[in-house]
Amino acid sequence: MSTELPLGFGMALAQNEAAMRRFEHMSEEEKQAVLDQVHRVRSKAEMRRLVSGLSDRLQ
Hints:
Strand content: under 5%
């Protein structure tokens, strides 16, 4: 997997510490699945929802 994150995704993660921690601890396969979703995002609101969903998975 490429180490570079799409800019919008990286910025959204930077604004949500819990989501960033969750993403960091994912397996490579889980990260790739999230990145596949990221590439289908078409708005900032969608990106925020996707990232927020990562932090929700901590519960």
